[in-house]
Design brief:
With about 500 residues, the chain is an alpha+beta fold. It contains 7 helices and 27 strands. Strands 1-4-3-2-27 form a 5-stranded mixed β-sheet, with no helix packed on it. A 4-stranded antiparallel β-sheet has the order 7-8-9-10, with no helix packed on it. Strands 11-12-13-14 form a 4-stranded antiparallel β-sheet, with no helix packed on it.
C-alpha cells in the first residue's frame, strides 16, 4: 500500500513545475500510515505502556522537535486567517501538517500501549521487532513529511537559506537515527510536565512566529480622505487585507526611478472576493494613468467607488452588489471615464457627471477615454480558439467599427485610442483600432521568457510596460518600445510584486 501511494503521489508531482522527493516520500508515508491504521483496528484495547523502548531516544526527541515546530507553523497560518486573508493552498497544507502530527502521535501511542500477545518467546520477539520497525518508520516518515509540508511560505527572504538547510538536514538525521538493530531496552516514562510543556509551547511558538514575520520594518501609513497630490505608481494587495499604494513623494517627477516611492495604505478597499466555489480572487481595483484616481470596492458600502485623490472626493459607480456580481473596473488615463465589465456586459461611466451608457457587445476592454471604448466582443482565450471582433464604441454607445481579432493575444489600446498593440512570441504588432489593418511590426528585444509578455500600462514617455517571467527567475517588468521592439528593465521595482495594478509609470 505504501508503494502504491508513493507511485500515485509521484505522478501528481510530475504535473507540477518542480521535481523532487517530496511527493514520492509523502505518498509512501500516507500509504504506510493507512496500513498501520488498519492494523491498529485489530490490535486490541489500549493498556499500560510497554516496559521497553520502541524508538531510539534521539529519534524520538527529533520527532518531538519536528512535531512542535511543524504544528506551530500550521497553527500560525490558522491564527493569521482570523486577521488576514490566507491562501487556500496554505490552509490545506496547515490542515495536512496537523493531521500528520496527530496521526503519528496516535499510532505511536497505540504501538506503545497495546499489550504483546501471549505466546512462545520467538513469536513475542518477532511482534516486538515488527512494532519497533513500524514505530521507527512512523517517526522517521512523520518527521520528514511534517517538516517539508509545514506552511513555511512566509519565511523572511533573508532566512530562506536556513529553511533549506533545515529541510535537508532534519530528514537525513531522522532517517539515519531510525536505522540500526532492534535491541530491547528499558523505557523510562517521561514526566507529565514534559508532554504538557510541548503541547503548550506549540501555540506560543505559533503566535511568536506570526509576530516575527507579520510586522513590517516600516509600517505603511494610512492614506487619508483629505486631498492627496502625489501620483500613485502602483497598488498591490497587502498581507493584512489592505491595498498598499506606492506614491511619488514631493520633489520627484514621474520619470524618476521607482525606488524613490513611499508606501501607504488604502483603507476601506476590499482585497479579496469570494468566487462562489470556495475560492478567492483579488478584489477589483483600477488606477488611472496619471496616478490621481483609484476605483475600488468599498468594504463598508459594498459599492464600487472612484476616488479623486487630489480633490479628496469619492463618487459611487454602482449600487451595493453581492461578491459574485461585482464588475471589473477600468479607468481612462485622466480618470474622467470608467468602464465596468461584468458577465452581463460593459457600461461606460462619466465619473464627473455620473452619466452611464451601455457598450453593446463589449466583453473585454482594451482602452477607454473621451473617444469611447476600444474592446473585443469576446474574452481572452487559449490558442486554437476562433477569432472574435475588435470593436470601437463612441461615448454615446454607437458602434463605430468592427474588425477580426485574435482573442489569444495579449493586447492593449494606445492612450489616444487610435491603435491596438498586440504581443506575440518574439514580436510586437501595432494595429489600427478602426480598420484592423496592421500598421507596424517589430521583433521584441526582451530576455528569454515563458509565454507572451503581459501588458500592464503605458509609461509617461509612451513606452509599453510589460510583465515577463524569465526561465528560472522571478517575474520582471520591462518597458517596451512598440515601434522598434527595444526594451529596458524598470529600475528599482520589486520583483516580488504580485496582482499589482499600475498607475503612472515612469
Amino acid at each position: 500500500m505504501a508503494i502504491g501511494f508513493a507511485v500515485m503521489f509521484a505522478q501528481l508531482g510530475d504535473k507540477s513545475s518542480t521535481v523532487g522527493p517530496f511527493w514520492p516520500v509523502t505518498g509512501w508515508f500516507c500509504g504506510f500510515a493507512v496500513a498501520e491504521m488498519f492494523l491498529a483496528r485489530r490490535g486490541g484495547p489500549l493498556g499500560r505502556p510497554l516496559a521497553f523502548r520502541l524508538v531510539p531516544p534521539f529519534a524520538g526527541g527529533l520527532w518531538v522537535f519536528a512535531a512542535v515546530v511543524s504544528a506551530a507553523l500550521a497553527l500560525a497560518s490558522v491564527f493569521r486567517s482570523f486577521e488576514a486573508e490566507v491562501d487556500l493552498a496554505e490552509r490545506g497544507w496547515a490542515v495536512f501538517t496537523l493531521a500528520v502530527v496527530l496521526t503519528v502521535s496516535l499510532l505511536l501511542m497505540g504501538l506503545r500501549r497495546r499489550a504483546l500477545r501471549a505466546g512462545p518467546a520467538d513469536l513475542v520477539s518477532a511482534e516486538f521487532a515488527m512494532r519497533c520497525r513500524s514505530a521507527r518508520l512512523l517517526v522517521a516518515g512523520g518527521t520528514i513529511v511534517a517538516i517539508w509540508s509545514a506552511p513555511g511560505g512566509d519565511w523572511p527572504p533573508d532566512e530562506q537559506g536556513y529553511r533549506t538547510l533545515v529541510n535537508l538536514l532534519v530528514p537525513l538525521l531522522a532517517w539515519s537515527l531510525a536505522q540500526g538493530p532492534v535491541q530491547p531496552t528499558p523505557a523510562h516514562r517521561p514526566p507529565r510536565w514534559l508532554t504538557a510543556g510541548a503541547v503548550l509551547l506549540t501555540p506560543v511558538l505559533a503566535a511568536g512566529w506570526n509576530a516575527a514575520v507579520a510586522v513590517p520594518e516600516e509600517p505603511p501609513q494610512q492614506v487619508l480622505m483629505e486631498p492627496y497630490e502625489a501620483p500613485i505608481l502602483y497598488a498591490t494587495p497587502g498581507r493584512m487585507s489592505q491595498w498598499t499604494l506606492a506614491t511619488l513623494p514631493e520633489g520627484h517627477e514621474a520619470d524618476d526611478e521607482w525606488d524613490h516611492s513611499h508606501q501607504f495604505t488604502l483603507g476601506g478597499a476590499v482585497t479579496r472576493l469570494a468566487t462562489g466555489d470556495g475560492g478567492r480572487r483579488t478584489g477589483p481595483l483600477a488606477l488611472s494613468g496619471d496616478g490621481h484616481h483609484v476605483a475600488y470596492l468599498d468594504s463598508v458600502t459594498g459599492r464600487l467607488v472612484v476616488r479623486n485623490l487630489p480633490e479628496g472626493t469619492t463618487r459611487d459607480l454602482t449600487e451595493p452588489l453581492p461578491a459574485g456580481a461585482v464588475p471589473r473596473p477600468h479607468l481612462s488615463r485622466d480618470g474622467r471615464f470608467a468602464a465596468l465589465v461584468s458577465g452581463t456586459g460593459t457600461e461606460f461611466v462619466d465619473t464627473r457627471t455620473g452619466v452611464r451608457t451601455a457598450m453593446p457587445g463589449v466583453r473585454r476592454v482594451l482602452g477607454l477615454g473621451p473617444y469611447g471604448v476600444v474592446g473585443t466582443t469576446g474574452h481572452p482565450a487559449f490558442p486554437g480558439s476562433p477569432d472574435t471582433e475588435l470593436i470601437t464604441v463612441d461615448p454615446q454607445g454607437r458602434v463605430r467599427s468592427r474588425a477580426p481579432f485574435d482573442p489569444t493575444l495579449p493586447a492593449v489600446a494606445t492612450p489616444d485610442g487610435r491603435s491596438v498593440v498586440m504581443l506575440r512570441a518574439g514580436e510586437v504588432v501595432t494595429m489600427d483600432a478602426r480598420t484592423g489593418r496592421v500598421t507596424g511590426r517589430a521583433a521584441t528585444k526582451l530576455p528569454r521568457h515563458h509565454s507572451p509578455p503581459e501588458p500592464v500600462g503605458w509609461s509617461v514617455k509612451g513606452r509599453l510596460a510589460v510583465l515577463i517571467v524569465p526561465a528560472g527567475d522571478d517575474r520582471e517588468y520591462h518597458l517596451l518600445d512598440p515601434r522598434t521592439g527595444g526594451s529596458s528593465p524598470m529600475k528599482g521595482l520589486r520583483k516580488e510584486l504580485e496582482d499589482s495594478v499600475f498607475g503612472v509609470i515612469p
